[in-house]
Design brief:
One of its GO terms (molecular function) is scavenger receptor activity. The chain is mainly β. It has 2 helices and 15 strands.
Amino acid sequence: MSDTVKKLSTCDSDKERGSEKKRGENKLASFILEILDSSNHILWTQYGPANASDIYNINTMQQKSVKSIVISVHGDLDVQVYALKNALVIARRTQGFATNVMAKGIPLHAMLVECLQSTWGLNCSSNCSINCFNQSCDKYSGICNEGCNGYVNPPLCTTECLQSTWGLNCSSNCSINCFNQSCDKYSGICNEGCNGYVNPPLCTTECLQSTWGLNCSSNCSINCFNQSCDKYSGICNEGCNGYVNPPLCTTECLQSTWGLNCSSNCSINCFNQSCDKYSGICNEGCNGYVNPPLCTTDV
């Protein structure tokens, strides 16, 4: 604190001054104020006069930064209260620091302590932006000093991540388990539901074999063999059933074939050797047999 003049006021208003006079004129008669550096060396000392005035001028020409202000008082409780108030007046004028007051009888101490990681400014009364990574910012200016969270332009951190990215300077990709690969830009949790999973927003439980898509709400096509499909896209992943073009499975089997990729032939017991493309049972009746659609009993 170089070439600095600070004023230590014993009263904050005319009302307080009036109250003080009623309680006596010598509240700070036994009063010592010390300013210490970061090594707890005394930089400057002020002794209270026999008769306290309303304002004391505190002057220091020291080059070292001030770590703490210690007020030692001797006397009744009123003296301690006023000494404490005076220390706070000084502390409020220091940007990027907070006042931590400890009162254990006499003396009282008003310490200047750095802001916590997530606070900054006058008396550390401002919170760092949630756009700052770890909500950490410079204690003097409030700008993000560890990068952005959910934003891409440190240290200002005003440009949001794209839909599929999140976290520190948007360097992480949202999980493919998130529907539309969309997630919260701060936490990475899925914010539009799951894709191929059933427990939003965590999306850690896979769909059953025959379901897929948003929160597993879609059924795999019966054209898929075993009605099994990819949990993300819904395309057939074990081949086709009654169709011949995996994984899309959009081209039907010829009349006399059926099953997995139409690789099985319909029974000659089926009339016109025609059968259901999914199950293989005779769908036009029997040929030489009497119990359709199974067609297993001779005439």
